Amino acid sequence: MIADCCSPTKPHEARPGQRKFPMSDSFNKQVEQICSGNRRAIAQAISAVESGSPLSVPLLKSLFRKAGRAYVIGITGSPGAGKSTLLEKLAAEYRRQNNRVGIVAVDPTSPFSGGAILGDRIRMQTLATDNGTYIRSMATRGQLGGLAPATRDVAMILDAAGCDVVFVETVGVGQDEVEIARMADATVVIVTPGMGDDIQTFKAGVMEIADLFVINKADQLGVERAEQELQAMLTVAPKRQTWQIPVLKTVATTGEGVSGLREELEKFRNFIQANPLGIERRRVRLRIRLLDLLRQSLFEKVANGQFDSEAIERYVSEILERRRDPHSIVEEMLEASGVKPGRE
Ligand SMILES: Nc1nc2c(ncn2[C@@H]2O[C@H](COP(=O)(O)OP(=O)(O)OP(=O)(O)O)[C@@H](O)[C@H]2O)c(=O)[nH]1
Ligand SMILES: [Mg+2]
Known about the structure:
With 344 residues, this protein is an alpha/beta fold. The chain has 2 domains: 68-277, Rossmann fold; 286-336, no CATH class. The protein is built from 15 helices and 7 strands.
């Protein structure tokens, strides 16, 4: 169990300007249990967020005040690059320093849960039995709001539950991953020597989000070449002023280079805490978060109201037949939902 992480929950008090909402004793108890690291309560909260249950918003509101201490680290890279293996070693390294660790593994391939998740679970066996580690696989895709917001909320729950470090493992292949990386305090991009020329074609988005590069499988041929290619790319990439993106080498299977990776991650943590650039990054992230939430809430307000998929299809036909333009339709939908359209 992740225990003794937060002070006991105070009865819910609304801050000035904040609306009060009724809190039952059982709700308060659940918040208290989450904050004291109760695994069952954490699992329930995560499920509530994943399924978008009505309980999730009050929970997230209450937990927000308890969160904000954890160092959220995104680990991304192509399938099979060794993310889970490396993460297991890295988590163990943090555990040795007495940090409580949360791991969110975002499964990219299987929306219905399956092999990959099981694979990660088996690989992380050594951690699964450790009381200071909480592991959660997320396979939900296609939810209203998408995977990235849910992942962000899950990371916050683990933060509130007292995890000092929260890792998010994702495969670097899509928009969601770029978004997930944006929510992290630090993003580690893993490449492998075998990638060869692929490094050149590595998704530009992923290149931009890297705070640290790791060449994993450094026991295989082609390490120097991968390193040269990465360094060459970094010299032409826009400079991040005071933070020099390091390129590290690891062998995740043996743990070689993993303590060095932890040291670099801690250096980066100090950098973002103290440097104005780091503070600005946090602002940017929070702005994105706020606007995402607003967008999502507005969308839900409109879409969940009177417009089912049939209605949407009717509108699409009207546009297709050029009988109406999309702007007018959106105005009509907003009006019908009680949201004042127009840009006065
Ligand atoms: N030789 C070698 N093999 C490694 C190393 N790191 C991981 N592997 C192996 O690479 C394979 C994939 O490792 P994973 O940790 O599952 O990779 P992953 O990136 O998490 O994979 P997905 O989550 O499926 O995208 C496993 O068979 C590992 O044992 C390494 O440093 N050297
Ligand atoms: Mg994995």
